[in-house]
Amino acid sequence: MKLGWVLALCAALLAGCGNDSDDGPMKVIIDSDYNTMSDDGQLGVMAAQLQAQGRIQVLGISVVSGNQWLRQGVADALKSMERMGAGARIPVYAGENMPLNHDYAAVQAEQAAGAGGDGYLGAWSSPQPQSDADLVAPPDGFATSTQVQAKSAVDFIVDTVKANPREVTILAIGPLTNIAKAVQRNPEIVPLIKQIIYMGGAVHVAGNTTRTAEFNWWFDPDAAQQVVRLPIKQVVVPLDVTDTVLLTKPIYDRIAHAAQPTAITRLFQQLNGYGFSGNNGFENNPEYTQNIWDTLVLAYLLDPGYATQTREEYVDVIARNGDPENGRSVGYDTPPAGVALQKMTVVTRFDNARFFELYVDLLTRPVPVTLK
């Protein structure tokens, strides 16, 4: 089946791509460059707690390289679900290890050309692990009973969307390589995806990894460009809003020093309390703050009312290897001629106080959970 024909069909069907039924929990795929207890890992914990409440059903976690190389991300995701008592109910799938086209030579060329930014390169900052012996264990050790699924993440996405037509929301909180590959191989799934909610992009603000590009979409710009152009209902939670939602010491203390400590709150303190250099985090600096990224996506899924300000606009991603603007996201009121862009919701402000009540609650609930 030709991709162009399918995309034309999707455009006609887009208005009817919502969930056919409002009964039961929302079905979700978490597509993530997973980590133990930064934003991806926090979202995993919160999602498992929401599944225990019967509010969502996580059909699986598909892991992709981004923050870390794939093998490390898979190991962290497996331990995360095992730690939560969810290893038997929320399966983990290994996805794509490399971007479609954005290799290290291009990364170096972009930096040399003056890309600027904070210099965070994620997986590119360390060698690829060649075996499990090269992996770094979470503080409480590797998973002992939870195993990665035999099916690839790409096949999992395809099969799950087909099995649940117009019911699955993809929470895309890492580079978009897995989703791009799934659509490339099976374009017929496009009209069957209910919606994609991203943490990605910097639509009307500066980037972070580079002066113009946000990390998730910068890591694989070609995949990001392909996916945001798909005729699917899409919501973007970009740096435009995440720059305005900061974890502060009082909120940190409610989790790290919870009255009823758990394995999660102890890890939260250990991995978020001391900063990247070990001496400038919350435990030693009451003025320290930390960005909140991916977990906003989960709040928006539960209730779009968490977003207090949004824009409806057409969004595209620049994909030019070696160019310092590679990975830049651009918003348009009117799409440029000759490019089939999609109008989507771009979140620009959040109800921070309400969000942090949800955030603290879900990260301090008892573990392990009993999943419904």
Automatic annotation (TrEMBL):
Record-linked InterPro entries: Inosine/uridine_hydrolase_dom, IUNH, Ribo_hydro-like
Keyword Hydrolase in record: yes
A GO term for molecular function: hydrolase activity
Species, as recorded: Aquincola tertiaricarbonis
One Pfam family in the UniProt entry: IU_nuc_hydro
Sorted UniProt keywords: Glycosidase, Hydrolase
Matching PROSITE patterns: PROKAR_LIPOPROTEIN (PS51257)
Protein name: Nucleoside hydrolase
Domain Inosine/uridine-preferring nucleoside hydrolase: 28-357
